[in-house]
C-alpha cells in the first residue's frame, strides 16, 4: 500500500510469488515430460491433475506411461524440488545469520559434516551392505543432522578465532578447513569399510537417480520444520542486517534468532544431503539471484529461494539425466558447472562493496 | 520527573573496567551531553543505559529499572543511535526507517497502516521524505544522519540516546542536525542524552553537561560550571582559553 511518500515497504511482491510458482510448475512438467521416454507435456499436466482426489480426466497416456510418470519420474522431480528449495533456503539463512554473502551449506562445511554422518551410518551398518538402490535407512538424516551441527559449530568457532574484525573470507576459510577435515574422516571410514564403498559412492554422486517415494517421505518432515522456522524469522533477518547491537536496541534477541536459524538451516541441509548426496552451489546461486532481482529484503529472498531453488535443481537434474546421452551426469557436476563461475562473480562484488 | 536515573553504573568489557561508578540524572525533556576524552567510557556508558550491554548498578528509565523492562517495551521507551550505524547494502530509506517500528510489530506479524503512517510522518518532519525510495548508501553524511534519527524517532520512544551524532559532519551540518534535535525535542517532548566531542557546540545546546574521565564523573552541571579551563586542562591534558560567548562558553585550544 503506497502512502504519501509513494514507497511500498519491502516484502514479497505478488508478481514474484506468482513467478516462483510458475517456475516450479514449469520445472515439474518439464522434469516429468522429458527423459529416455518422452511424454507429451499436455498429458503430463492432465495426469498431475488426476492425482488430485476426485479428479479423473483423460490424459491419452498409456498405463505404462502413467507408471513411468508417477512411480519413477514424479518422486525424482519432487525430491529435486524439495532438495533444491531446502539448499537455497539454508544458504539464504546462513548468509543472513553470518551477514556474509559467501555463506553456503557447502562452503561452511555443513554439507561435509552431514556427508560424514551419512557415510558413518552406511559404512558401520553391518550385514546389509552393497545394494545401492536399497531404501535409505531412517537413521541417516539424524546422523547427517548431528554431523551438520558439529561442522557449523566448528566453522563458527574457527572463524571467530580471527577476532572481531574478521572479513567474510575468514569464515569461509574456516569452512574450507572444516570441510577438508571432515572429508578426511569420511575417506578414512570409506577405506575401512570397502564392502560398502559402492553404496557410499553412489550416494555421494547424488541419489536423485534412484529416488523413490520413500526418500520423499524421509525428507519431507525435515523440510517442513526447516521452512516453517526459517520463514518465521524472515523479518528478524532483515533487522539483523543493521547489526546485533542495533537489533537489540529495536527489541530483538539477535543471538537467539541466530542459534534458531543455524539449527534450522543445518537441519534442512542435513535432510537434503542425506537423500541427495553432495550437491553444491545451489545455496549461493539462488539466493543471490533473488537478491539481485527482487531486492535485499529476506522477506522476499527466503520464500523465493525455496521456489526458484526447487525449480533450479529440478531443471539441473533434467539436464543431468538427458544431456549426457545414455550415462547420467552426476547432478553435483551440473550445479558446480553453473555455480563456480557465479561464485566468482559474487566474490568480486562482495570485495568491491567492502 | 526523572527520565533517566543512573546510580553506580559499572561496565566491564573483556575484563577491563570501562565505566566505574557513574551517577547521572536526566530530567524529562532535558538535554544532557556527556563529554570526556577518548576512552573515558562515554559510548560504553550510553550503550549500558540503552540496555545494550550488561552492567552492574542501577539504570531506571521513567522510574522502571531497565533490566526489568521486556526487550520490546524497552525499545519503545528508549531509542539509541550509535556512533556509526551499519548501512545495510541495498536497503531503501523508507525500509530503514520502518525498522524503527520493530518493537510494535508482533513476532510473526507485518507492518500495520499505523506503522507506515508513523514512518511517513517522521520522514516528513525530518525533511527526508523525498529520499524515501532511495538506497540509504547513496545519501550524503548529513542526509544519512537524519535518516538514522528518523529510525530512532519511529520507535516512538520518549528518551533518545545519541552517540556522537555529529562526528561525521562538517560544522554546517553539525549545527543543522543539532538544531533539528532541539526542535524535535520541543515538538515531541523528548529527553536527550548524547555524547559529543566538540565542546563549544556541546555547551551551546545542552541544558547540562557531564564530564567523564577514566570511567567516572569528573564534573557535572551547566556548561559554565563544566567547561572551565581547570577542568579541561586536568582531564583533557590540553591548554585552552574559555571565552564568554552569546550561548555559553567558547572553548579555544591554545598551543602550549
What's the main sheet of chain B like?
6 strands, mixed
- How confident is the prediction overall: mean pLDDT of chain B? 94
Can you write the helix and strand succession of chain A as a string? HHHHHHHHHHHHHH
Order of helices and strands of chain B: EEEHEEHEHHHEHEHEEHHEE
Tell me the overall shape of chain A.
globular
Q: How many domains of chain B?
A: 1
**Helix percentage range of chain A:** over 70%
**What would you call the structural class of chain B?**
alpha/beta
CATH topology of chain B, by name, is Rossmann fold
Q: Number of DSSP strands of chain A? A: 0
Apparent shape of chain B: globular
Query: Could you give me the name of the CATH homologous superfamily of chain B?
Result: P-loop containing nucleotide triphosphate hydrolases
What does this structure look like?
The complex is a heterodimer of chains A (354) and B (256). Chain A is 71% helix and 0% strand. Mean pLDDT of chain A is 85; it is low at 129-133. Chain A contains 14 helices and no strands. Chain A has helices spanning 14-33, 41-50, 63-97, 110-124, 139-160, 168-192, 197-204, 213-232, 234-240, 244-249, 254-276, 282-294, 298-322, 331-353. In chain A, helix 4 packs antiparallel against helix 5 (139-160). Chain A has 354 residues and is an all-alpha fold. Chain B has one domain (2-89, 157-253): P-loop containing nucleotide triphosphate hydrolases (Rossmann fold). Chain B is built from nine helices and twelve strands. Chain B has helices spanning 42-49, 71-77, 93-98, 113-125, 141-154, 171-188, 199-205, 223-226, 229-236; strands at 2-13, 16-27, 31-35, 56-61, 64-65, 78-81, 159-163, 191-195, 208-213, 216-221, 240-245, 248-253. In chain B, strands 6-7-8-3-9-10 form a six-stranded mixed beta sheet, with helices on both faces. Chain B has a four-stranded antiparallel beta sheet with strand order 2-1-4-5, with helices on one face. Chain B has a two-stranded antiparallel ribbon with strand order 11-12. In chain B, strand 9 (208-213) and strand 10 (216-221) form a beta hairpin. Chain B is globular and about 55 Å long. Chain B starts with a strand and ends with a strand. The chains are: A mainly alpha (354), B alpha/beta (256). The A-B interface holds A 1, 3-7, 9-11, 232, 235, 238-239, 241-243, 245-246, 248-253, 291, 295-297, 353 and B 47, 50-52, 71-76, 79-80, 82, 85-86, 88-92, 94-96, 98-100, 102-103, 105, 107-108, 110-111, 113, 116-117, 120, 123-124, 129, 132-133, 155.
Amino acid at each position: 500500500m503506497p502512502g504519501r511518500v509513494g514507497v511500498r515497504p519491502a516484502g514479497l511482491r505478488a508478481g514474484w510469488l506468482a513467478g516462483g510458482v510458475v517456475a516450479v510448475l514449469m520445472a515439474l512438467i518439464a522434469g516429468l515430460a522429458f527423459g529416455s521416454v518422452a511424454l507429451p507435456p499436455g498429458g503430463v499436466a492432465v495426469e498431475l491433475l488426476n492425482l488430485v482426489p476426485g479428479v479423473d480426466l483423460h490424459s491419452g497416456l498409456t498405463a505404462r506411461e502413467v507408471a513411468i510418470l508417477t512411480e519413477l519420474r514424479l518422486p525424482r522431480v519432487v525430491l529435486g524440488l524439495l532438495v533444491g528449495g531446502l539448499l537455497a533456503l539454508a544458504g539464504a539463512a546462513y548468509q543472513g545469520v553470518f551477514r556474509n554473502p559467501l555463506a553456503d551449506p557447502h562452503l561452511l562445511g555443513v554439507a561435509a559434516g552431514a556427508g560424514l554422518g551419512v557415510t558413518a551410518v552406511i559404512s558401520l551398518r553391518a550385514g546389509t551392505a552393497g545394494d545401492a538402490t536399497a531404501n535409505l535407512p531412517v537413521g541417516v538424516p539424524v546422523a547427517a543432522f548431528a554431523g551438520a551441527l558439529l561442522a557449523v559449530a566448528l566453522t563458527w568457532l574457527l572463524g571467530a578465532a580471527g577476532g572481531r574484525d574478521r572479513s567474510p573470507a575468514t569464515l569461509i576459510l574456516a569452512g574450507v578447513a572444516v570441510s577438508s577435515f571432515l572429508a578426511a574422516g569420511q575417506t578414512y571410514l570409506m577405506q575401512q569399510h570397502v564392502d560398502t564403498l559402492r553404496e557410499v559412492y553412489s550416494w555421494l554422486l547424488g541419489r536423485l537417480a534412484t529416488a523413490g517415494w520413500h526418500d520423499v517421505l524421509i525428507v519431507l518432515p525435515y523440510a517442513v520444520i526447516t521452512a516453517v522456522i526459517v520463514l518465521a524469522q524472515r523479518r528478524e533477518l532483515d533487522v539483523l542486517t543493521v547489526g546485533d547491537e542495533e537489533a537489540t536496541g529495536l527489541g530483538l534477541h539477535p543471538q537467539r534468532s541466530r542459534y534458531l536459524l543455524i539449527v534450522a538451516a543445518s537441519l534442512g541441509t542435513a535432510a537434503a544431503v542425506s537423500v541427495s548426496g553432495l550437491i553444491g552451489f545451489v545455496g549461493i546461486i539462488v539466493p543471490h539471484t533473488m537478491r539481485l532481482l527482487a531486492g535485499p529484503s529476506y522477506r522476499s529472498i527466503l520464500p523465493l529461494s525455496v521456489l526458484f531453488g526447487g525449480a533450479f535443481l529440478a531443471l539441473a537434474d533434467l539436464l543431468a539425466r538427458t544431456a549426457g546421452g545414455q550415462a547420467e551426469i552426476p547432478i553435483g557436476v551440473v550445479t558446480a558447472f553453473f555455480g563456480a563461475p557465479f561464485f566468482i562473480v559474487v566474490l568480486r562484488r562482495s570485495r568491491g562493496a567492502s | 520527573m526523572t527520565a533517566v536515573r543512573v546510580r553506580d553504573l559499572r561496565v566491564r568489557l573483556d575484563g577491563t573496567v570501562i565505566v566505574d561508578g557513574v551517577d547521572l540524572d536526566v530530567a524529562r525533556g532535558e538535554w544532557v551531553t556527556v563529554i570526556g576524552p577518548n576512552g573515558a567510557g562515554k559510548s560504553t556508558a550510553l550503550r549500558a543505559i540503552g540496555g545494550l550491554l550488561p552492567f552492574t548498578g542501577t539504570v531506571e528509565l521513567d522510574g522502571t529499572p531497565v533490566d526489568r523492562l521486556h526487550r520490546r517495551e524497552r525499545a519503545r521507551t528508549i531509542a539509541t543511535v550509535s556512533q556509526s550505524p551499519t548501512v545495510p547494502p541495498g536497503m531503501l530509506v523508507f525500509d530503514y526507517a520502518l525498522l524503527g517500528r520493530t518493537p510494535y510489530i508482533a513476532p510473526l506479524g507485518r507492518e500495520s497502516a499505523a506503522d507506515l503512517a508513523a514512518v511517513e510522518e517522521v520522514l516528513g518532519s525530518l525533511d527526508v521524505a523525498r529520499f524515501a525510495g532511495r538506497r540509504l548508501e547513496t545519501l550524503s553524511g548529513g542526509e544519512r544522519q537524519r535518516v538514522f534519527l528518523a529510525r530512532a524517532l519511529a520507535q516512538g520512544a520518549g528518551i533518545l540516546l545519541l552517540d556522537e551524532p555529529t562526528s561525521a559532519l562538517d560544522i554546517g551540518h553539525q549545527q543543522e542536525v543539532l538544531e533539528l534535535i532541539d526542535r524535535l525535542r520541543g515538538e515531541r517532548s523528548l529527553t536527550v542524552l548524547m555524547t559529543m566531542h566538540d565542546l563549544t557546540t556541546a555547551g551551546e545546546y545542552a541544558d547540562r553537561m557531564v564530564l567523564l574521565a577514566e570511567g567516572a564523573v569528573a564534573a557535572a552541571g551547566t556548561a559554565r560550571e563544566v567547561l572551565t579551563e581547570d577542568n579541561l586542562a586536568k582531564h583533557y591534558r590540553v591548554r585552552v582559553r574559555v571565552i564568554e560567548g552569546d550561548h555559553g562558553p567558547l572553548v579555544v585550544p591554545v598551543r602550549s
